[in-house]
Task: inverse folding
């Protein structure tokens, strides 16, 4: 089941905000649809008007639902139908969280040792390096 806070973050436009409670921890989250909204959101953060623990930026309408792997052209009725279908599939899935996937837990038990282990960090985390610009 998706918490009401998460449902409030689903849509195709604008900037959505929510407070998500995990145990005693309250996380401030935001989702921006489109680069103009992302720019506005990041300016608000930069200027100290907003403060979040997590920001998701979706450059395509509704994220991957309306992204490059989908048919060309934005037909809002089709996009909305696709969203509803995917949310329905997700809602009724037996296995919805990666940390509860038996294959993932076995991988940690047999190879990666434990979540956040040195080995899992080295193999699964992305590392960025500053590089010179190429012309």
Result:
């Amino acid at each position: 089941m998706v918490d009401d806070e998460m449902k409030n973050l689903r849509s195709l436009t604008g900037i959505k905000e929510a407070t998500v409670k995990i145990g005693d921890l309250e996380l401030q989250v935001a989702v921006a649809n489109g680069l103009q909204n992302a720019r506005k959101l990041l300016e608000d953060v930069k200027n100290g008007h907003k403060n979040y623990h997590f920001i998701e930026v979706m450059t395509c309408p509704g994220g991957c639902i309306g992204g490059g792997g989908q048919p060309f052209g934005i037909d809002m009725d089709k996009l909305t139908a696709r969203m509803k279908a995917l949310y329905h599939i997700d809602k009724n899935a037996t296995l919805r969280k990666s940390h509860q996937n038996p294959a993932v837990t076995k991988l940690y038990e047999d190879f990666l040792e434990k979540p956040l282990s040195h080995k899992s960090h080295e193999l699964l985390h992305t590392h960025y390096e500053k590089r010179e610009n190429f012309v």
Observations:
- The helical segments are 4-7, 35-46, 76-92, 102-112, 118-124.
- The chain has a mean pLDDT of 84.
